[in-house]
Amino acid sequence: MEISENGFIFSDNKNLIKTGAVHYYLSTESYWAKNIPLKTVAKSIKNSLCFGIYKNNNQVGFARWVTDKATFAYLCDVYVEQEYRGLGLSKKLISFMIFHPDLQGLRRYQLATLDAHELYRQFGFTELKNPERQMAIVIENI
What we know:
This protein is an alpha+beta fold. It has a single domain, classed as Aminopeptidase (3-Layer(aba) Sandwich). 24% of the residues lie in helices and 27% in strands. The protein is built from 4 helices and 6 strands. A 6-stranded mixed β-sheet has the order 1-2-3-4-5-6, sandwiched between helices. Strand 3 (49-55) and strand 4 form a beta hairpin. It is globular, with a radius of gyration of 15 Å. The model has no long low-confidence stretch (mean pLDDT 94). It holds the Pfam family Acetyltransf_7. This is N-acetyltransferase. It comes from Pedobacter mendelii. Residues 1-140 form the N-acetyltransferase domain.
């Protein structure tokens, strides 16, 4: 799938993803993946349903779903480059992603965020109703 709007291209075509650009952002700019190795980013892209935002052949945004495409999808690694924020690109990206044909009819869409709650609420995300039922193994600074 691919759409164009105001000179930006939103696409799920993995061949367009600039792994080096995604790695640079995640490893240097994100709070959730500081210092992540390039090899790990490349493997995560390979094994996920990925989406990019492009302007003049440059990667200006990225996000991915970790999903079985049947019951569950976890949204992660969402970003828009600083100079392109405030243009509504993250809203357009999330809308493009959540209505993707491979993700219709799932039982659960989930994510974690430090500071973008209001963005995700616009798409129906809410805090967990029973957080005591959720568990995780979290390995810090792997």
